[in-house]
Amino acid sequence: EKEHKGDFHIEEAVEWPGLDLKLGQVSGLALDPENNLVVFHRGDRVWDENSFDSKFVYQQRGLGPIEQNTIIVLNPSNAKLLHSTGKSLFYLPHGLSVDKNGNYWVTDVALHQVFKLGANDKEPLLILGVPLQPGSDKNHFCQPTDVAVDPITGSIYVSDGYCNSRIIQFSPNGLYVMQWGEETSLGRPRPGQFCIPHSLALIPDLSQLCVADRENGRIQCFRLETGEFTREIKHKAFGRELFAVSYVPGGLLFAVNGMPYPGEAESVQGFVMNFSTGEIIDNFIPLRKSFEMPHDIVASEDRTVFVGDVHAKAVWKFASVENMEHRSV
Ligand SMILES: O=C(N[C@@H](O)C(=O)O)c1ccccc1
Cα 278 vs. chain centroid, distance in angstroms? Predict the structure, then answer.
């Protein structure tokens, strides 16, 4: 029995049939208001070293948008397909979140855009950014990675991105409000500096936004209203890269890291943390197959966790189990 603190322990739900869903690269996961699993995937398209030129301009626009439905909604127990949408809209899906009204919010790193889609609409309700044009002003993104909407204020937060180092806040109807963040300078990364802000976890009850600062291998959290830095969560066990974060009300923070660099000790895995102390209380890996590039993580209030992998093209489900010692008393 592996070491873990307290009585919280999760392990793969091996009855979940989501490992062979015949999806493309799985880039984003979210849970909708009915707690169904929403998956954002790339169909037959892949992001590889030929996808962009040195100025971050997408090189395969001649292929046209992905023909398959890139947003699919699954029953969280048996992975049955409930709904799908998002065909002929996207080139390289990346981030996904679902707002309290069930709208899908996504980012596309090839289009350098952010989209709001109604659950049953074909036409987007809102688009931010200029198609296929990278940039770093108020109207352009550069490979935006994720988007999150504050359920209380309706404010929109975008993590921008692979080739920018900032978080931008927009008003509920998409007007630029403010931004914060800067590139990591040489030496030790300082608060508010990013090296690929890669995933967002919005914490409405604490009015904070936490960011997976991917290549700095850390989580940084900020005040929603001001962008003021509140804290950093970083552990040696994360290794060099921290890919994604997800928060569940009640105070647990979930994360996944990256594959270890050659010779590095820290293995690729999921983490469960106590948000207020930042302490790791459990970690987890699949029983079936292995993490290759776990790219997004989403957790529900009953502590069910899903992890999507962009290289394994798989979605694992994890569930919390009673601690074995508990049962013996
Ligand atoms: O990080 C990369 N990709 C993943 O994050 C993703 O696929 O979202 C990547 C980096 C360099 C070249 C090609 C891909």
Answer: 19
